Description:
There is one protein chain. The protein folds into two domains: 3-72, no CATH class; 79-161, Immunoglobulin-like. It is 21% helix and 21% strand. It contains four helices and eight strands. The protein has helices at residues 8-12, 16-25, 60-72, 143-148, and strands at 84-87, 94-101, 104-111, 117-118, 132-134, 140-141, 150-151, 156-161. The strands form two sheets. It has a six-stranded antiparallel sheet with strand order 1-2-3-8-5-6. The longest helix has 13 residues, at 60-72. The radius of gyration is 17 Å and the shape is globular.
Amino acid sequence: MNSWDGTEAERLGALAQPFAVLTALLPGMPMLYSGQEAGLNRRLAFFDRDTIKWDELPLEAFYTKLLQLKKRHPALRNGDPASNFQRLTTPDGLYGFVREKNGSAVIVLINATAELLTLPGQKTCISPQKGLFDVFSGEQLTLAQAKARTVPAHGWRVLRTRD
């Protein structure tokens, strides 16, 4: 896939941000297209000079928070054999995983449906005594509270352990 295939909005619609979260936090290296953090909603001209308006950045806070988490959290470091990846058992349309290293973890839930979904309770590699922090809302939760939370339609939830 390349930028000739269209903008994120053209390709993914309402799932553009959830899939940005997914690709940034799965093992590997995320890629941003020119203007993606500026909320560019048109294709850039190829082989001609084209301008990206940098005076308004509607997605700057979103990408800053997401990429700072990727950079700073030890469980999200690429190629680290000490980190663990656990795919969560989820209902159709919900994708979830935990990345953990030395008791420090990140839980990622992506809802690709137009419905509100709840993660069914299950065992994870996270200690029940660990508190959790919702990276995007700032809410502090217990593991039991997090398991009872919903994931909004075409939305995501990213929780990290409070260390």
